[in-house]
Amino acid sequence: MTVRSYIVQLQAGVGQALLPDHRKMLPGIQYVVDADTFSKISLGARQNVINVVAVNTDQVSTSGGYVPAQVSTGVNRQVNASGQGFFNILTQTSASLTSFSIAGFAAQGASAGGATGAGAGIGTPQGTLAGSANNYSLTGPDGARYTLAYNGTGTTISGGWSTVWVDYNNRYIGVAASGAALQVRQDGLGTQYTISVNTTLSGVNGNVTTVGTKAGEFAGITLVNIPAGNFGFIQIEGIHPAAAVASGTAVGTAVGLVSSNTNGTLAAPASTTTVVSGGIVTGSALANNIAGTVLTAPASGTGTGQYFSQVELRSRRVKKPYNRFLNKN
Question: Residue 306 and which of 161, 231, 242, 262 are 20 to 30 A apart at CA?
């Protein structure tokens, strides 16, 4: 990982809090938190409870492209049935699912070869739903996680852009402005949830209709350009080396997606005060589509007109899953 530790403190007005390693936080005191512990701090706490004072890194990458850790060693050199390495399959895009063979990878979160059997391409539940990518994921050597998605929009989604789910069930992604508007509600116990919608979207073998799917919620960040009508992997957890962010965003800022965003840029939310009006929630971490924390000062991307930073993406699940392979104890 590029980050060794973080220095954090409570936001103004917060009386106390408990870190994931069970240390009690009090106002005016700074705490050093290792990278693994920080990754467990919820998105809501990053927005409303703590401030990141500093990020202590091993080094800062100036690469404008996607280069995962240990490209030429370890799991990245392990090849699948098609002769591809880990790095190759993550940066590949294709209009056909059969190009994505993961047979040969001992990948957490995915069955070798996908649903159609060993040595075959990643499959879907039904042949008629070949416009969907289904939920297949890979885990990198540094614990970063990636999932296969389908660009069902009419334009290319550039590398380093943040995306939203247009159809979560069938893995359709788009940029915020082109997808369904994110709507968050709150149940009687105060638990927030994303409203389900019905979709009919164009796929490679005809329309794909879904009844009840999440839409508008942060999906992940692209690794390379994904052309319209193509499948490709997006990063959903871990440190992304070159994510588009708003110019001037401070290191340590919790950033999310703006609903009117057309260029996949993450930014600090306009409001962090949770308001429930007419059953609709605004201002919360979920409603603000908070994705993670900025690790490096934004740098201009050559010829893009945008700025890019390393961003630590936190798992969207309330409690980060335990991974025995990465257990620091």
Answer: 231
**In terms of C-beta density within 10 A (0-12 exposed, 13-18 middle, 19 or more buried), how is residue 94 classed?**
middle
- The pLDDT-based confidence of 267 (bands split at 50, 70, 90) is very high
Give Rg (Cα) of the chain. Answer: 19
Q: How far is CA 327 from CA 38, 78, 139, 312, 322, in A?
A: 14, 23, 15, 19, 8
Q: What is the residue type of 174?
A: G
The dihedral formed by the CA atoms of 233, 234, 238 and 243, expressed in degrees to the nearest 10: 130
Token pair recorded at residue 174: 């788009």
Measure the N-to-C terminal CA separation of the chain; round to a whole number of Å.
Answer: 17
Query: What tokens does 290 get?
Result: 């908070």
- The DSSP bridge pattern shows strands 280-282 and 275-277 to be antiparallel
Provide the 3-class DSSP secondary structure of residue 139: strand
Q: Do the bridges between strand 266-267 and strand 275-277 make them parallel or antiparallel, or are there none, so unpaired?
A: unpaired
Listed ranges 6-10, 149-153, 323-327; the one with the highest mean pLDDT: 6-10
Strand partners, 264: none
Residue 297 burial (C-beta neighbours within 10 Å; 0-12, 13-18, 19+): middle
Spatial separation of the C-alpha atoms in residues 244 and 300, rounded to whole Å? 10
Give 328's contacts (C-beta < 8 A, 6+ positions apart): 34, 36
Question: 53-69, pLDDT tens digit by residue?
Answer: 999 987 654 444 544 54
Residue pair 236/147 in contact by the 8 Å Cβ criterion: yes
Nearest to 219, CA basis, from 207, 231, 237: 237
- The pTM score is 0.84
The torsion defined by the Cα of 6, 7, 12 and 18, in degrees rounded to 10, comes to 70
In tens, the pLDDT along 175-234 reads 877 666 788 999 888 889 998 888 888 776 677 778 888 888 999 999 999 999 888 899
